[in-house]
């Protein structure tokens, strides 16, 4: 199971890494706040910062903007999401849990990327008597989501029209 987790991490990094991670940007912001405090010019107004502090803040904002706004869902990203979904309904619970973490990360990075797996979820929920118990459990955990993702309330009437009858059965 540990080799599957390592392979899962490598596989998902191909779609999640764009030169910098969001956690690194958060560290840069914290460092910037420390630098602003250390080099605070007490003779001027509170908004007067040294030039290099302002330039560093602009650079961090540009990194954050490029990280959050220039992502398009490519065919490879769709394949990664679908493979992560297949591992999210795996029979081993540890593999399922790790794959779901990476899957929810992908959902948060690409807008409307959840549409890739909705048909497969509906297919598994509709024939629940023939499908493995672990697959149903994985589907339900994906529907439940995490703190930032909850599939049954996404703003798409087409998805709601397909998904809600499958959940109700």
Low-confidence stretches: none
Number of strands: 0
Element pattern in H and E:
HHHHHHHH
Based on CA inertia axes, which overall geometry fits? elongated
Report on this structure.
The chain has 169 residues and is an all-alpha fold. The radius of gyration is 21 Å and the shape is elongated. Helix 4 (75-88) runs antiparallel to helix 5 (93-109). Helices cover 70% and strands 0% of the residues. InterPro entries: PSME4.
What would the keywords be for this entry?
169 residues, mainly alpha, 2 domains, 8 helices, elongated, PSME4, proteasome binding
Task: Describe, in short, the structure shown.
The chain is mainly α and 169 residues long.
List the helices and strands and how they pair.
Blueprint: H1 2-16, H2 22-38, H3 51-69, H4 75-88, H5 93-109, H6 115-126, H7 133-144, H8 157-168
InterPro entries: PSME4
GO molecular function: peptidase activator activity; proteasome binding
């Amino acid at each position: 199971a540990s080799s599957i987790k390592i392979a899962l991490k490598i596989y998902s990094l191909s779609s999640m890494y764009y030169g910098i991670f969001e956690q690194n940007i958060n560290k840069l912001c914290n460092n910037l706040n420390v630098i602003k405090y250390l080099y605070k010019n007490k003779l001027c107004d509170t908004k007067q910062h040294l030039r290099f502090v302002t330039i560093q803040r602009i650079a961090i904002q540009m990194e954050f903007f490029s990280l959050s706004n220039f992502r398009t869902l490519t065919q490879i990203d769709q394949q990664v999401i679908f493979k992560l979904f297949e591992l999210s309904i795996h029979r081993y619970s540890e593999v399922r849990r790790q794959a779901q973490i990476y899957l929810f990360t992908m959902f948060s990075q690409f807008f409307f990327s959840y549409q890739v797996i909705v048909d497969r979820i509906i297919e598994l929920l509709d024939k629940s008597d023939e499908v493995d118990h672990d697959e149903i459990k994985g589907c339900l955990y994906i529907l439940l989501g995490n703190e930032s993702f909850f599939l049954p309330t996404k703003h798409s009437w087409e998805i709601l029209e397909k998904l809600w009858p499958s959940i109700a059965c």
